[in-house]
Amino acid sequence: MGSQQKPSRVLVVTHPLRKDVAELAEKLAAALRGAGVAVRILSGEVRSLLQPDALVIDHEATSATADLVLALGGDGTVLRSAKMAAEADVPLLGVNFGKVGFLAEAETGELETVVTRLLDGEYTVEERTALAVEAVGTDGEPRNSWAFNDIAVEKAEPARMLEVFIEIDGTRISRYGADGVVVASPTGSTAHAMSAGGPVVWPDVDALVVVPMNAHALFAKPMVVHSSSEIRIGVESVGTEGALIADGKELTRLTAGGTVTIRRSKRPVKLVRMSGQPFASRLVSKLSLPVDGWRHGRI
Predict the structure, then answer these.
(1) Whole-structure pTM value
(2) Catalytic residue, candidates 67, 75, 150, 247
(3) Active-site residue 75, yes or no?
(4) Which residue of 25, 103, 249, 265 has the fewest C-beta atoms within 10 A of its own C-beta?
(5) How far apart are CA 205 and CA 203, in angstroms?
């Protein structure tokens, strides 16, 4: 385990609707402050955080007030925190209060250990690829955004099919009707992309994943491309809107003629690591994989 400098300013991001998380956030903040670390807590709606020693700050204040972001919640909270951490170019540490917690480094019962290791600098920082997206609608105006896990172009109407084309580095690869297309970072390959039938990619692989969702076509296979590739998705449906979604949040609607271009972001996410657990072990434990198989114990 490597050694890092003790953080002097920590931003704690909590799940906005869970009071149990808010209470633990306050205890965590008190422990860090007792060791001389300045702490601020960001939460959406929990009123119990409105205490003199638990300052609630807005999004814009993040980069100027923290050198480490600590997310308390499930993967949704970590994703919300990831953008702030990437914009500020500071490390992100996730503590899981959710169900799977694939992006988190520690579990609820390990908070005391987390504090100790942070104060002792006993952690490493791992850089993860993120995604940049530019959407151009029929008005020709570009809209730019960012995602840690994935960018998806999905049909906005459940009963309709979305007609799209896919280009990789300027070459048309395929055109089909589908529920949509999801482009994932290696970290995001275990999220929406995996549910759509895509491959699991180890986080340190220098690649992006393109996965069609329920495509009506002879060639509609998941593809793994180099992270330097430019992926362009065009909407061709007339009368059916597409929705552009980044990390589960809808950004805009797309009509016929709209395009989405996805590249590796220049702003990666720096994840804090406190254990030497390899990704394969994390995969087995988080997804409860049946490693013995159905034939185990049979003759």
Answers:
(1) 0.86
(2) 75
(3) yes
(4) 249
(5) 6
